[in-house]
Write a structure and sequence with these properties.
2 domains, alpha+beta, 4 strands, Glutaredoxin, Glutathione S-transferase Yfyf (Class Pi), Chain A, domain 2, 11% strand
Length: 208
């Protein structure tokens, strides 16, 4: 199994977390998006969308013959991993909870990532002299506002977003990690999210 990724990409981090949760061995190949390597002809043969991550797996198909499977888009990759390697399961058994896991994953990928992406851009890709402090503070407050949704989900004292750990937790982890790293006051104003984040950090997959 080969994962083409960029270390700081939230989508790549999300997939590495799921790979770690499932205990799967794989080879990592760096696609340096800062250098535009995702648009190289060689990589576009793997992922025509020109984004990271992409996964190449070799499995036995019908009749026992080996088949090379190429998957891209972090959500589709994680669903493939759940289908191909179902133990341990990272999707709830209940259909309603499975739907909610997908909704939360989509929310993390397309909504939560916006303000945390601003923070990442300001701290990683912008020199200290040129940082926009007003934009940074606005992104922090927007992040806190969005994470209020998770504070509500966790109100019943459940350890993870849907009770047991799932792909919803894996999908939210990268953005929440960046929010904490770049100064969003999660620990001060969102106690249940803070406790949940501590549990995430204590899982071995967090280091992935």
């Amino acid at each position: 199994m080969i994962l083409y990724d960029y270390p700081a990409s939230p989508s790549s981090r999300k997939v590495r977390i799921v790979l770690a949760e499932k205990g799967l061995e794989y080879e990592r190949r760096l696609i340096d998006i800062a250098k535009g390597e995702q648009r190289s002809e060689a990589y576009l043969q793997i992922n025509p969308r020109g984004k990271v991550p992409a996964l190449v797996d070799v499995r036995k198909g019908v009749g026992g013959t080996e088949r090379t499977i190429t998957v891209y888009d972090s959500t589709i990759i994680n669903e493939y991993l759940e289908d191909a390697y179902p133990d341990p399961p990272l999707m709830p058994a209940d259909p309603g909870d499975r739907a909610m896991a997908r909704i939360l994953e989509d929310w993390a990928d397309n909504v939560l990532v916006e303000p945390t992406g601003v923070l990442f851009g300001q701290y990683v890709f912008t020199s200290e002299r040129r940082r926009n402090n007003a934009k940074i503070e606005e992104a922090r407050m927007h992040t806190i506002e969005l994470l209020g949704r998770l504070e509500e989900l966790l109100r019943d004292g459940q350890p993870y977003l849907l009770g047991d750990y799932s792909i919803a937790d894996a999908a939210a982890t990268p953005s929440v990690a960046y929010a904490v790293q770049f100064g969003a006051p999660i620990h001060e104003v969102l106690p249940k999210v803070s406790q949940w984040y501590t549990r995430l950090k204590n899982r071995p997959s967090f280091d992935a």
